[in-house]
TrEMBL record:
Species: Methylomonas koyamae
UniProt keywords, alphabetically: Membrane, Signal
Record's GO cellular component terms: outer membrane
Taxonomy of the source species: Bacteria, Pseudomonadati, Pseudomonadota, Gammaproteobacteria, Methylococcales
InterPro entries from the UniProt entry: BamE-like, BamE_dom
Domain Outer membrane protein assembly factor BamE: 42-106
Superkingdom to which the source organism belongs: Bacteria
Signal peptide boundaries: 1-27
Protein name: Outer membrane protein assembly factor BamE domain-containing protein
Stretches of the chain forming a coiled coil according to its record: none
Length: 114
């Protein structure tokens, strides 16, 4: 059995590597990326300050994308942020602030969608 090896020119190999890296970089630059997760924004009007509970919010929107604290009180964030180098941004977010009993004390909803 005879072995067949192809001898590569180091200059050709470097050029091939450079072209591959350039192609991958261009794909990343012209593409888009998304952060967060979709949520049912059509349910935002159902939120009632002083009445809606954490359990109600979970049933309406699911698991929050982020959780945190503001002034010692829990906050939940639902959000989707789509960025593209060409074509602009498509985003919407909902920040819900709860009191110590888990009742909505305020919320903010923002969107770039039409």
């Amino acid at each position: 059995m005879k072995n067949h090896f192809v001898k590569l020119n180091p200059r050709a190999l470097t050029l091939t590597s450079l072209l591959l890296v350039s192609a991958l970089s261009t794909t990343q630059l012209t593409g888009c990326f998304t952060v967060g997760q979709e949520f049912a924004a059509n349910h935002v009007p159902e939120i009632k300050i002083g009445q809606t509970r954490k359990q109600d919010i979970s049933e309406l929107f699911g698991t929050p994308w982020r959780t945190g604290m503001e002034d010692g009180k829990p906050t939940w964030t639902y959000g989707i942020y789509k960025y593209a180098l060409f074509g602009g941004t498509d985003s919407q977010d909902l920040l819900i602030r709860f009191d110590a009993q888990g009742i909505v004390r305020s919320y903010t909803f923002s969107t770039t969608r039409k």
